[in-house]
Write the structure tokens for this entry.
Amino acid sequence: MHYAYQFTVEPTHTASAPLEESLKLGSGILKRVQIFFPDGCSKLVRCCLWNNWEQLAPTNPDGYYALDGAAADAALYYDLDEDTNQLWFIAWTVGSKYDHEITIHLEVQGRDEPDPFKIMALMRDTINRLIDLMRSVL
């Protein structure tokens, strides 16, 4: 499942009064977050992604994304069923004079979709067991 949101970060959204937008996602594993900054942001627009109690992206608690005409791309493994599927997009500006449209894309792997990493780990474990079995016979 792919989710896409676009938010307007205004000059009035400062660090003390940021834009806080709720993102309600479906069931599954949040695998990837992309945040697109248009040209002209000049690294003055900053943002991060939170759940109800901790920052998810970027991982460092005091970190934020701030780019200009580029995208922040973060690979995650966040279980929306075990934790919470209620996320928060937090954004603010430092000295911006204009509104900026920030787009965020979230990729969620549904429970019914195969997980290639789990399949590879299962194959590796099976091969290792077979090798151990052959060593014990020889």
